[in-house]
Backbone:
């Protein structure tokens, strides 16, 4: 019997051993992850199989079967088990009212469309009181996609980050909402679910009232949360056990079938799937750091040192603040900055974001506009980790102009404490965003699965073309 098998058997038999065995934090997290992936869950489900097959069951028995689950996951499982009657089988063709649903699919398969149609169907129903709907996401940019739905009738709808929804403290140790003080929502929709850490997800679900409906949407092929435990195994387990109805979207609507085939091949084969005929992808062999630096400098001149880009900045400088004309001029620059980005696998090293941002900044000396990204939540400013914008030099002062939750804000640079230059960002930070073109610095590592996920996530950020800079 393997050491892992022996240990998990003992943990199931005696919950107190969880706090007695000499495990590091990483080992404990690994055990939890494997449990939720199904290694232990199979044994757990055998205890509740009869109850899960029916609409009505004895919660006392289920709680007994759950005694070995680490404490921070119990509220999450309690919610899904007590709302089992809202999971109507393992597969579905649409999000149905009252049905806890997992919506998965690659880029362009219609995840956002499904969410919008579902919310519109809720608004179309006449009810005695408005339906309270929260659309949450890990980043402000992802949550802002659905702000247009806030104007629908018969709903109290808010689009916001998960941290803001739960009103988490800056260090994440405390939240306003939990099981004793549940969130005031009837429907919770979480977009970009693959980016959510499992621990945060467990806290979020554990803070729901038991009558609430849950809809989770995302591309499970993308990268998991930067820190913490990947959520995909837990979602798969919940769907397999019938605790979530699975709506799997496979038909692409945004681009051709040939491009969809390339994306699918990237997930399984990585860089080897890219050929000269791959639609929407261009592969450039980069021999060394010097060649990469030359490419990046030429890129900077083509994107940020053009007469058109300079004209946008000058127009903003000459437009009085505030006013609708100023808003329009600022949004034009924000849209221009969304046209192209460099994506790196990490911040560090000669091929990372820090080095490339310094090099591009040197090329762009004298520009009025410098793209930036917020790197920590600021509840005082209502700005959140992952929000993007730019520093603007009006000739006298430097201001931050930033878009958060669909709104453009201006504030003195000194008020924003946590930010970084964002000519180049990490692939992790790019999740939830789209650009016309992305340039991807790709380095082959010793972990093929991680390499494939990184490359797939990066390439699918591009609406039109992805340029892969393959390092040697």
Residues:
């Amino acid at each position: 019997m393997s050491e892992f098998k022996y240990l998990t058997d003992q943990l199931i038999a005696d919950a107190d051993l969880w706090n007695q065995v000499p495990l590091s934090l990483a080992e404990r997290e690994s055990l939890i992850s494997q449990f939720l992936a199904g290694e232990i869950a199979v044994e757990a489900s055998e205890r509740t199989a009869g109850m899960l097959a029916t609409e009505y069951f004895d919660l006392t028995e289920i709680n007994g079967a759950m005694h070995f689950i680490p404490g921070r996951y119990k509220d999450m499982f309690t919610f899904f088990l007590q709302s089992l009657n809202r999971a109507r089988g393992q597969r579905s063709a649409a999000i149905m009212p009252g049905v806890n649903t997992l919506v998965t699919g690659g880029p362009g398969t219609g995840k956002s469309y499904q969410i919008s149609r579902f919310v519109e169907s809720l608004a179309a129903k006449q009810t005695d009181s408005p339906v309270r709907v929260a659309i949450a996401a890990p980043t402000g940019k992802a949550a802002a996609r659905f702000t247009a739905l806030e104007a629908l009738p018969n709903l109290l709808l808010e689009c916001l980050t998960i941290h803001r929804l739960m009103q988490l403290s800056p260090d994440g140790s405390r939240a306003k909402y939990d099981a004793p003080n549940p969130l005031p929502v009837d429907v919770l929709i979480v977009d970009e679910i693959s980016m959510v850490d499992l621990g945060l997800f467990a806290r979020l679900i554990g803070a729901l009232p038991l009558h609430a409906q849950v809809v989770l949407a995302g591309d499970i092929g993308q990268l998991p949360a930067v820190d913490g435990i990947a959520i995909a195994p837990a979602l798969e387990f919940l769907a397999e056990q019938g605790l979530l109805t699975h709506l799997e979207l496979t038909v692409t609507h945004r681009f051709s079938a040939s491009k969809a085939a390339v994306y699918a091949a990237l997930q399984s084969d990585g860089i080897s799937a890219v050929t000269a005929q791959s639609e929407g992808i261009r592969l450039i062999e980069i021999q060394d750091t010097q060649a990469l630096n030359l490419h990046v400098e030429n890129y900077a001149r083509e994107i940020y040192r053009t007469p058109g880009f300079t004209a946008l900045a000058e127009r903003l400088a000459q437009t009085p603040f505030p006013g609708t004309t100023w808003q329009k001029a600022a949004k034009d620059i924000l849209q221009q900055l969304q046209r192209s980005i460099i994506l790196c696998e990490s911040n560090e090293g000669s091929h990372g974001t820090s080095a490339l941002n310094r090099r591009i900044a040197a090329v762009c000396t004298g520009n009025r506009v410098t793209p930036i990204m917020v790197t920590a939540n600021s509840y005082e400013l209502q700005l959140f980790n992952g929000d993007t914008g730019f520093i603007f030099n009006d000739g006298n002062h430097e201001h931050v102009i930033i878009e958060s939750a669909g709104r453009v804000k201006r504030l003195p640079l000194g008020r924003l404490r946590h930010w970084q230059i964002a000519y180049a960002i990490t692939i992790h930070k790019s999740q939830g965003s789209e650009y016309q073109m992305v340039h991807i610095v790709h380095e082959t590592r010793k972990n093929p699965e991680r390499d494939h996920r990184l490359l797939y996530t990066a390439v699918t950020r591009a609406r039109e073309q992805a340029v892969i800079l393959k390092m040697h």
